[in-house]
Design goal:
The chain is α+β, with helices and mostly antiparallel strands and about 290 residues long. It has helices at about 105-110, 125, 130-140, 145-160, 165-180, 185-190, 195-205, 210-235, 240-245, 250-260, 265-280, and strands spanning about 10-15, 25-35, 40, 50-55, 60, 70, 75, 85-90, 90-100, 120. The protein has a domain at about 10-160: Jelly Rolls (Sandwich), CATH 2.60.120.10. Helices cover about 40% and strands about 20% of the residues. The strands form 2 sheets. A 6-stranded antiparallel beta sheet has the order 1-2-9-4-7-10, with helices on both faces. Strands 3-8-5-6 form a 4-stranded antiparallel beta sheet, with no helix packed on it. Helix 3 (about 130-140) runs antiparallel to helix 4.
Length: about 290
């Protein structure tokens, strides 16, 4: 097994566009031809991750051995605050979605809190229909056809919405995103007319994490997106400027979050992911106001 980030072959990434904006932040098709199997590191983000593989199953988890890992063609990861890992075979193709956590109940009838710090077989949540979808997508000859079929599937499920998350939780999420994770919890509580303790309680019930944890994920995601844009464009990267523009007190606080969320420094993560980012990886997990 190759180390995380080791350059062992070629990756291709295809942007799937806006399949269902109210439920999916981004969609990317991927294919790989590697010299040997490798391990991919999934960073924490304010989105759920759904992976549908078309070839061999992958092993996923926060540790790739023991009870903390699972093997599946369909992987669903909940909100998490530590890096997740996917062990991938030499030849692999599939689609990865960044799913809005508050849309999970609307799409599939369960709150995101049920997936907190887990990477599971997606069939446990979505049912047998998602396996039929995966097989259909694998049989289609082109990426546009695959994305069209996936979008139709998502729209069909959205049409069956019976209940959604609490409006104050939805509004709190929007407020955190608008402030890119830099707003205070007292200001957020006042905005949604709840006490801070009650806000934390309803947030955890729906999402499995506190509003403070989501704010940190939003701030980190904003910094990650700035890094991805710079690396993809081949532009000079000033991590101190990234930290400042993303609401960190200083560069060291950005490094601290990277070490927690990625298990490495920003520069080490960039070195590991450089070719993938330049090839089109690193799709956004949240949309922020300009």
């Amino acid at each position: 097994m190759a180390d995380v980030g080791e350059d062992v072959g070629e990756w291709r990434f295809v942007d799937g566009g806006r399949l269902l904006p109210e439920a999916v932040v981004s969609a990317v098709g991927y294919s790989s031809k590697l010299e040997r199997p490798c391990t991919h590191r999934g960073l924490p983000s304010p989105a759920l991750t759904l992976v549908l593989t078309f070839d061999e199953p992958v092993i996923s988890g926060f540790e790739l051995s023991g009870q903390d890992s699972s093997t599946s063609h369909l992987v669903l990861g909940g909100l998490h605050t530590r890096p997740a890992y996917i062990s991938q075979p030499k030849a692999q193709s599939g689609i990865q979605l960044a799913v809005r956590p508050l849309a999970l109940r609307q799409l599939f009838g369960v709150p995101a809190s049920e997936l907190r710090e887990q990477a599971i077989d997606a069939r446990d949540v979505f049912g047998a229909g998602v396996e039929r979808l995966r097989e259909q997508l694998a049989d289609l000859p082109t990426w546009p056809e695959r994305f069209a079929a996936l979008g139709a599937y998502l729209r069909e499920n959205t049409a069956e919405v019976t209940s959604g998350p609490r409006p104050d939780v939805v509004e709190a999420w929007k407020w955190i995103a608008w402030h890119r994770g830099t707003g205070s919890m007292s200001a957020l509580a006042r905005h949604v007319h709840l006490g801070e303790r009650q806000l934390t309680s309803v947030f955890k019930a729906e999402l499995g994490v506190s509003p403070k944890a989501v704010s940190r994920l939003m701030r980190f995601e904003h910094a990650r997106q700035r890094i991805v844009r710079a690396v993809s464009a081949g532009a000079p990267l000033d991590l101190a400027a990234v930290a400042h523009s993303s609401g960190y007190y200083d560069h060291s606080h950005l490094v601290r979050d990277f070490r927690q969320y990625a298990g490495s420094s920003p520069s080490s993560w960039i070195a590991e992911e450089l070719r993938n980012l330049q090839a089109g990886a690193g799709q956004p997990a949240e949309e922020f106001p300009v």
